[in-house]
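Checklist before submission:
- one chain only
- standard amino acids only
- sequence pasted in full

Submission:
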Amino acid sequence: MKRSPTRRQLLRSTALAGIVAMAGCSTTNRESNAASTSTTSSTSTNDSETTATTTTESTPTPPESIDDWLANANGYRGDVLRYGPGSQPSIEVGHPVEDGLSFDPPVIEVAPMTNVTWDWTGHGGLHNIVALDGTFDSGRPNAQSGTSYHYIFEEPGTYPFVSEPHRDEGMRGAVFVKEPPSTGNQTVDRWVVDSSNFDGTVVDRTDVDTATVSVGTQGNRGHFAFDPPVLKITTGTTVEWNWTGAGGGHNVVFLNSDIHSGQVTPESGVHFRHTFEQSGTYRYACQPHRSLDQKGAIIVE
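Returned file contents:
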């Protein structure tokens, strides 16, 4: 497709001295609620950069199937990294993996009005960011570490993108824009929304004396999830956490409470039990993998 310069956002290199501000996508930053109606990006006027970058001859076209498109994406193993509302995710450009160069993460899910930034690592030579449907385009390929490009996704949809110089080598990715899953409980939703295996479901175990949560199930780009992530029980119910033995060492630590499983252990089996005597919403995490969003919640009625 022929891309008009009016739809093209230019690259911004923080490591270069000469900066020229250019208007980008027409939208408002959700976090700052700025009065401006456009995002901005910039590019250096350094002569060496200008002579080093070239425009590729290939023209991206939207794929017939997003699954087929991602099947050949370097670094993609079927995991979609979710970011909740208010997040500002970043994607590395030129991340080395076994099958070549990749975006890291290659596939993310975000809420509408999320500002996504691509950061160049400096690996693999020239790169750019081009949406296959023409929604966004970072401009001429650039090879310099410290370069970045950002775009605010306003509308729900699926946005496959590519680095044009490395498209045939599998350097491709996608951004899924959709409303985040919700249980209707804001405390719970804010806590577990980033967990990739959370889909808004509350597993009801109000009719049992003992309920079980698996520790180290598939999720969050590895075995870093609780299953179910959200559980509902009644007072007097005992919950037991059963380690799968996958994902390394885990524990269970509750927020704003002295409830915890103690030491981190990688071994399979039931390593923690707790009986909930008071109603309320209880949030917890695996301490070693909290940054990977291994989180859970229990609603006690």
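Reviewer check: The first strand starts at residue 12 and ends at 13.
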